[in-house]
Amino acid sequence: MDTDVLVVGAGPTGLALGIDLTRRGVAALVVERAQALFPGSRGKGIQPRTMEVFDDLGVLDAIRAAGGSYPVGMIWQDGRRAGEHRMFDPAEASEDAPYSEPWMVPQWRTQEILRARLEELGGKVAFGREAVGLTQDADGVRVEFRGESGSGEHLTARYAVAADGGRSTVRRLLGIGMTGETLDPHPTLVADVRISGLDRDNWHIFPPAGDGDGFLAICPLAGTEDFQLVARFPDGTAPDLSLEGVRKVVAARSHLAPEAVTELRWASDFRPRAALADRFRSGRVFLAGDAAHVHSPAGGQGLNTSVQDACNLGWKLGAVLRHGADTALLDSYEEERRPVAADMLGLSTSVHRGETRRGQATRQLGFGYRKSSLTHETRPDPDPLRAGDRAPDGTVDGVRLFDAFRGPHWTLLALGGAQPPDEVTALVHVVRGPAPRTYGPGLFLVRPDGYVGWAGASPAGLPEYLARFGRC
Questions:
Q1: What is the CATH number of domain 376-467?
Q2: Per-residue pLDDT tens for 146-159?
Q3: pLDDT for 215-232, tens place per residue?
Q4: Which of the residues 9, 61, 178, 392 could staple to 14 if both were Cys, CB 3.0 to 4.6 A apart?
Q5: pTM surpassing 0.85?
Q6: What's the chain's Rg over C-alpha atoms?
Q7: Cβ(87)–Cβ(358) under 8 Å?
Q8: Where are the domains of the chain?
């Protein structure tokens, strides 16, 4: 085999998975069809749960330095400010949830940060490799590429992951269908531009005029000098993606002159849709990110759900490839992630249609895996935290829990006098001390992806549970 895991696609999903696998000592190669990383701002919102994942992956400081909070919306009418519009319901940070609101970082910058972290760990991205064929057998996967020297190149791996976007070539090669709907048939222009004459303290919204000129929104992109422009067009029209085309739209729909748009950095013709792959796995190949689920951008769920796919799959591949876990563990990826993706699709679609506010649900702190076959709750009346839930942050005997969780290991919390087993393996870190309010007393085994896998008042059954995951 050329590598243990071949990750097709160097978007946020593929890069996050590459980081997670590499830090586990799994040989992973990320390949990308394009000659460079995606250049646009498209997925700019990072939800609090993804901030926690980025904390674990070691990129949180860079993400925070690169971005900023979302600005307040400002509605314009007839060239005048008509009132503010709050995009998100406010939320206060707390000890158990230190990241409370979305953080804005343009997608291209997020990918640069993830790539730098991957390379810091010794991983790499191979650009200019377009997948054109795929075969697999009981031992591995062979992917054929059209590369710089033409067709005929191939790579073999024990497993492969399709992280190559909503139009996934790998998904098509596998014959996996995708069920969904177009949420809005109207073309939408999304562009990164430089604009003079607008402040960077507001997300500027220009509602359609009485003659139906269409919607325009211009949002300052935190950490850059750019704005993201979004303009909706009547069905059947084709947006002009040139600088002159963008200038015409801005002049027609706002008080700004055409020359206020000084530079066009990236543009796309976008049609919002929602779709879910019929399966997330075919043999030794897994679907992750947009290859598995496509979201409306409303509510900022797409990139975030995708990165968390990588977080879920990475530790399971690591357990099988490095620690001798039974391959049946990999079945739990689809079991756990497909229902979450379906829920997030429903949420983003509801936000898109104006039925749901961007609030607690869109922060993604509340979903978990209580019904998963990997979840074992042994207490008769668990309260307040149950196995399957996200493991909150907190402080135990001077130790911050997110610091204790950070890394590829499991963490056993022995709280409020609960006693851990006499022996645990080196890859299970033990934290002892008084029980934080959000946990209560007991033993809580926190999975490598930050969810409670097993909980009990005593260690009875815990060694048998851990044995399912190999030499962890």
A1: 3.40.30.120
A2: 866 666 789 999 99
A3: 999 999 999 999 999 999
A4: 9
A5: yes
A6: 23
A7: yes
A8: 3-67+105-180+274-363, 69-100+184-271, 376-467
